[in-house]
Every structure is written in C-alpha cells, then in structure tokens.
Amino acid sequence: MLDKNELTYVATHFDFWDKLNPLEKNIFENNIVKVKYNKGFNLHSSDSECLGVLLIKSGGLRVYILSEDGREVTLYRLSPNDVCVLSASCILNNITFDVHIDAESDTEAYLLNIGAFSRLHSQNVYVENFAYKNTIERFSDVMWAFEQILFLSFDKRLAIFLLDELNKSDSDEITLTQDQIAKYIGSAREVVSRMLKAFQNQGILEQSRGSIRITDKNKLKHLI
Amino acid sequence: MLDKNELTYVATHFDFWDKLNPLEKNIFENNIVKVKYNKGFNLHSSDSECLGVLLIKSGGLRVYILSEDGREVTLYRLSPNDVCVLSASCILNNITFDVHIDAESDTEAYLLNIGAFSRLHSQNVYVENFAYKNTIERFSDVMWAFEQILFLSFDKRLAIFLLDELNKSDSDEITLTQDQIAKYIGSAREVVSRMLKAFQNQGILEQSRGSIRITDKNKLKHLI
Fold first, then answer.
1. A90 touches chain B (CB under 8 A)
2. pLDDT band at A13 (very low <50, low <70, confident <90, very high)
C-alpha cells in the first residue's frame, strides 16, 4: 500500500480519483504498487500479458512499433508524470494495434494492475473517459511522428530531433549512439551516420563515441 | 427536422441517445440536418470552420493528411453508417493535428452541428465518451495505414489495396485512375504505374483508361 504522500501524488495524475465512490477508491488503493524497470527492459509487447496503467515517477518509456523484419519506429516517449494507458490496451476494445514499450532509462512508476483497472474502467464512465482521453493525446503524438517521417526531409527531421534532445539535457552534449538516434526517429543507422557526418562538415556538431556535442546551435536551428 | 424513421436511424448510430435527458434530446433533434456533398468536395481542412459530427447515409468520405508541398496520405475512408468525429475536432482538446476530409463520391449524411455537439459534449459524459471511442477506432485505422506504409513492400501494399477494392465492388473491375490509387495508398503515381505494369506482365490484371480488371485474383492473393 502506498503512503499518504504517494497516494496524493497518484490521485493528482489519475484525475478520475474524485469521481470514484468509496468502494472504488478502496479497489484503487489496494491495487496500485510501485514498480521498477531497468533500462532496456521490455514491459509490453504483442506477446506479453497486459500489465495495467502506469504513472511514471522517474525515468522514461519509449513506445514503438516493430516490423516483422525487426525494424522499429518510435511513436512517442513518456516522461515523469506521464500516464501510460497502452500498457492496458487489452481492455480497450477499440485499440486493434500492437505496440512495444521499453524502459529508456532506469524507471520508477506506479502500476495500477490490469484487474483493478478493468473493473474500474467498466463500472465508472470517468475512468473509461480518462483512458480514452489519454489515448487520444497519444494519437496526436503519433500523428506528429508520422507527419515527420512521411513529410519532412531527413536533414530537418534529424535537426529537430537533436534540438529537442538538447533542450531536454540542458547542455550542449547529447549522449546517444547513432543506433539509438536511428531507432528514435524511425530511420536506419547508415542514414543517420551519413547525415551526422554532413552536419559535422558544416561545423554544426562534433561526434565522439556514443555522444554528440552541438557546436553551432544557430546553424542547426536554421535547418528547420 | 428529421422524420421519425430518420430519427430512429440516427439514434441507433449515435448510441449516446438513450443517455440524453429530454432537454438534450430536444437540442439534438433541433440541430441535426440532412446534408449532401458532391464528389470531390472538401468538407474539412485546417483552414475551414468546424462542421460538427457526421453520420454517413450514402457515399463515402476520405480522411487524409497533406504535406506543405501537396503530398497526400490517406488515413482511412468512411462508408455508410460510419460516424465522422474528426470533422468536429476543434472541440476535442486532445486532438492537436489537422486532417482533411473529402467526399469520395456523392455523399448524403446527417450533420449534428458543432454548436449542439459542443454543448452536449460538455454537459453529458456519454456524448464525450462516444466521441472518444469513435476517435480511438480511427486511431487504430491510422496505425494500420501507417504500418502498411512504413513496413510493407510496395507490391504487397498495392495487392492488398486492389483486393480490398475488389471485395467492395462485387465485380472484377476497379474503376480508379492511377492517380487516385496513388493518393489512397500514400504513394506517387509513377510508382503505382510501374507496379501495375509489372502486375499486368504477370497476368494478374489488365488496364484500360480509368479502370483495372483483375484477371487472376489468386495470383494477386498469393502476393500477400
């Protein structure tokens, strides 16, 4: 059972809390636990059992699709305070696609297990609505990702990605391998490698093993 | 005002009807009208005003995204009895992307105008719920479209598309131009043209101006 502070935190982010009756609050409290996932752990896939709904406390998750021949396309990434509903997609009838969810870094989260979530979801329309609203936000994320993949030239996509990463990190260093970048933006490592080299030749960045230092942010912005 | 038969039809498909109170039913009845769109008419775009929710009676709609340089990618198509909610996306806060909606053929529909829908949506959680559920179904359609575009080889995509069209038409004839096919499957006309010629050489189909006759359905199925 979570302590009082944790429960307050959780109730703020599962904003159906106020619409639960006492019995439902009881179900909620008895079925939410703190979980930890190591970096790289796959917590949801087409084969795995349905986990439930997650509220991320620290770390982050990456949600992606996987082709039969092993190609990955990242749909979106979740950060602390984000709620992950697709890890409970088995009870959402209208979701007919499969996603994979990995911990991007060591991640702590609160997990409302699938049994409790299923029960609350079926008997309380506000819980159902919460799940839908969250899913539709992710729909918007997915549309954004696909518009980038389908419509943007690759140099723009890579520039946007690098600037986003830069803004997150609060430094001029991005600690990602070419392989990771390729996965995140749905491309091949060779293509990323070629474009990073081109950026390097333009004096935009310097590469070293597993990290990239942006030396001219304005030039990078200018690409977009 | 719709007649009794029409209202029964409409109430069946807007399945929040039973959850409306008498006043809300009144709002609904006074704000739903029959509309007609000519083939090719653009009824929703990023610039246009928000129409409201549509229930298609006959004909069909195509929902697509458009790049800055004019490339189209079809997200999904709607048929009779389908409800179109993205034509009211302005009141759905979580939808942050723009789509375009065209009439694919002469189309008759029932339109619940945006003012009434907005009012019902904000005061009745079941109307809100209906809009979300419908949107999430479309999310699944979109994921399907994107998985095809991103993961399937082009011959498979085209074969699946032709078989779908064949099943709809109940004949061995598909009356679509290469240009239309390219739009529907999010490709370029030249690519479609090349692949259709390859299929023709394999004895799968015959082409004439604006239409395609499938001569060997089994060979086509075999491609998938």
1. no
2. very high
Same domain as A99, residue A87 = yes
Query: What chain A residue is nearest to B127 in terms of C-alpha separation?
Result: A129
**Looking at chain B, which residue has its C-alpha nearest residue A68?**
B151
CATH number (domain holding residue A169): 1.10.10.10
Count of structural domains, chain A: 2
Parent domain of A27: 4-150
| Chain B contact probe: residue of A16, A138, A143, A187 with most B CBs at under 10 A | A143
pLDDT on residue A46: 80
Do both A33 and A111 map to the same domain? Answer: yes
Closest CA of chain B from A136, distance in Å: 6
Tokens at residue A39, please?
Answer: 């970096």
Q: B126-167, pLDDT tens digit by residue?
A: 999 999 999 999 999 999 888 888 888 788 889 989 998 888
Single residue among A102, A133, A150 that ends a domain in this structure: A150
Same structural domain, A169 and A94: no
Residues of B in contact with A125 (CB under 8 A): 125-126, 129
Assess whether A87 and A197 both reside in one domain. no
Model ipTM?
0.78
Q: Which of A67, A97, A135 sits opposite B151 (nearest CB)?
A: A67
